[in-house]
Amino acid sequence: xxxxHRPHPPLPMRRSRxxxxxxxxxxxGAAALTAMMQCNGWGNSGGAAPEAVLPDDAALRTFHHPPKxxxxxxxxxxxxxxxxxxxxxxxxxxxxxxxxMPVQVERTQFNRNGNVMASPFTFKPSGESGxxxxxxxxxxxxxxxxxxxxxxxxxxxxxxxxxxxxxxSGFPFMGHPxxxxxxxxxxxxxxxxxxxxxxxxxxxxxxxxxxxxxFSSGFLPAQHQGSVLKADQAExxxxxxxxxxxxxxxxxxxFAKSFDQQFLNQAGGDPQVEAAIENxxxxxxxxxxxxxxxxxxxxxxxxxxxYGLDSSDQEKAAYARQCLLARRLVERGVRFIELSCxxxxxxxxxxANPWDQHGDLEKGHRAMGFQVDQPIAALIxxxxxxxxxxxxxxxxxxxxxxxxxxxxxNGRDHNPQGFSVWLAGGGIKxxxxxxxxxxxxxxxxxxxxxxxxxxxxxxxLLGVDHEKLxxxxxxxxxxxxxxxxNVLTGILS
Length: 493
What we know:
Blueprint: H1 17-24, H2 28-39, E1 71-76, H3 91-95, E2 113-116, E3 123-126, E4 131-134, H4 138-141, E5 147-153, H5 160-169, H6 179-187, E6 197-201, E7 227-230, H7 247-266, H8 271-294, H9 301-307, H10 314-331, E8 336-340, H11 361-385, E9 392-397, E10 401-402, E11 405-407, E12 414-415, E13 419-425, E14 432-434, E15 436-437, E16 444-446, H12 451-461, E17 471-473, E18 476-478
Parallel strand pairs: 1-8, 1-9, 5-14, 6-7, 6-8
Antiparallel strand pairs: 2-11, 3-4, 5-13, 9-13, 10-12, 15-16, 17-18
């Protein structure tokens, strides 16, 4: 058998795109399949499973180790929840109630310090694990066996704005990327029609002290900054409205895209220009995806009741909607979701820090606990029932704890020396507590932890070595954990 070297008839000079696809592959179907495989992480994997590599928009090309989770939900308790009134019981406070502190008192935010103050809340063992949780959170107590409580968290700052920046970015000032931005940058998006980092708000929720810079992408490409989504407004994301994507609109967008590409080329591929173009294109695609996300008419009445959407308490119902949308965002592949507390009338803290009770702590904390307790417990149960909790990590934290002594007659000041946070979900050893504060709940004395340790652990569960997720900026390889951080292996399953 010899090869046929006779000349073939010349191809026509004018070739249609259809002919090109037919000759180069097997047509439109193969092209569409290739695009879908790339979006779902199949690209360059040599036929491996989708989990083997990251999406094409990820800064990391492969996971550093097999991931335990794909998504993070950050329930941020702005203002500083009192650990000695929630997840870290201290009988010694009751024994010494009303007496002067038996140890040296560190300077506090307002430095108007009183005597030892017993908790007005009652603790009881919860779940099969016996995890102690106060009656501020009766519904969260019902999912105690899902929680790993870290009782020895610390922070180097004692003021709200600085504390918020540290908890979000690891640094006490603006200009550094939020943890959500780092996750979006490093791991990419599983849904090209939605942002990788979404901040949910509803009702009278406002941004904590520090402002929108808390959700900033900092020196990372701008498309990774947090997109604020108003969960209960007709226009959930500003200037993104529901409308049919007509053919003429699509043609206009393609026409504009061609100019954008020319400008990007002229700018030498400037990453900020590229990020701006990506943001415009994502906003275009969100015109259909965001309204569909926020339309919860397909949710059952039992689900709505489970979350508390039917509550007569407006703040609770509004926070419940955030929790429900968080589950829907997880279902749609969003990488990082942050929830926002709402201000809560008389007895609660200021609008930007509603957990901040320098006076009348019992009333304010009970009101805030009532707001978030049922919705968060429902979120955990719903994710578990749908088989999503094993691929989702929930992080619950404020910027610091509160003092074991009173401020005034019945409030507590800020305490950064030792406080509690908790995690739940994939890769977490539920029904456990890690670390300890002293018998007064004042200083962390066992397995002392930092915010860097917390985020190192989150990244580890996402399949990322926190020391290798870096971005070159000002001559230095920057990272979320700076030059610190150790994975909290004691809470991992």
